[in-house]
């Protein structure tokens, strides 16, 4: 997706350990027009698939997911990283975060992820696929159909796609980063 790739090259910053900072337009300050373009692209890619809900995980997946939900007139549900004391009837899984180097619990209410649901999962980054693995687990526990996953940015050198495809789930990403070596952003198809 050209507008996204141009923006990553202009405003993305490399950090040690294979981390890309996109705080200027995705993770802190957000660009709503770019989010809209991202949502439209995900909608195009999943246009031949029946979906009744968008699934994401807090926090950075919420913006693109909500724009998608708005455009498709579908509900959006996000998996939470902390269980509120008022939450009951929950499904839970454990995810390892490589950016924070620790495990955390992810929960979702059984009321909002059910065997009737056909969901697309949307998130900002695909790295090693740990969050994706947790979401696949939550969908299996709920008996919901996970029709596919969509990531704004995939870092192909961390191989998270393998985890998703091994589970038989479709994976779409809008920009593929092949390397962040020597603090240079190398995108697939761009020299
Ligand atoms: P994974 O679970 O696939 O290893 O990592 C995906 C999650 O970690 C995403 O939800 C995202 O929040 C975070 N993440 C992974 N890599 C990066 C990165 O390079 N930059 C930022 N900002 N977040 C990342």
From TrEMBL:
One of its GO terms (cellular component) is cytoplasm. It is found in: Cytoplasm. The keyword Cell division does not apply. Its main location: cytoplasm. Pfam families: Pribosyltran. 5-phospho-alpha-D-ribose 1-diphosphate binds at residues 127-131. GO terms for molecular function: xanthine phosphoribosyltransferase activity. Xanthine binds at residues 20, 27, 155. Pathway: Purine metabolism; XMP biosynthesis via salvage pathway; XMP from xanthine: step 1/1. One of its GO terms (biological process) is purine ribonucleoside salvage. Residues 39-170 form the Phosphoribosyltransferase domain. The keyword Nucleotide-binding does not apply. InterPro entries: PRTase-like, PRTase_dom, Pur/Pyrimidine_PRTase, Xanthine_PRibTrfase. NCBIfam families: PRK09219.1, XPRTase. Belongs to the purine/pyrimidine phosphoribosyltransferase family. Xpt subfamily. Homodimer. This is Xanthine phosphoribosyltransferase. It comes from Hoylesella timonensis CRIS 5C-B1.
């Amino acid at each position: 997706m050209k507008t996204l790739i141009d923006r990553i090259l202009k405003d993305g910053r490399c950090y040690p350990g294979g981390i890309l900072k996109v705080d200027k337009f995705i993770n802190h300050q957000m660009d709503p027009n770019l989010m809209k373009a991202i949502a439209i692209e995900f909608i195009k890619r999943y246009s031949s698939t029946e979906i009744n809900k968008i699934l994401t995980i807090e926090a950075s997946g919420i913006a693109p997911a909500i724009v998608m939900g708005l455009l498709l007139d579908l509900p959006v549900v996000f998996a939470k990283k902390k269980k509120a004391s008022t939450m009951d009837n929950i499904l839970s899984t454990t995810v390892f975060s490589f950016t924070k180097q620790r495990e955390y619990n992810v929960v979702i209410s059984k009321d909002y992820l059910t065997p009737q649901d056909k969901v697309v999962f949307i998130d900002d980054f695909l790295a090693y696929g740990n969050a994706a693995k947790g979401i696949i687990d939550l969908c299996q526990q709920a008996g919901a159909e996970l029709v596919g996953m969509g990531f704004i940015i995939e870092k192909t050198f961390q191989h998270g796609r393998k985890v998703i495809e091994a589970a038989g789930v479709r994976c779409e990403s809008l920009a593929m980063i092949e390397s962040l070596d020597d603090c240079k952003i190398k995108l697939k198809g761009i020299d």
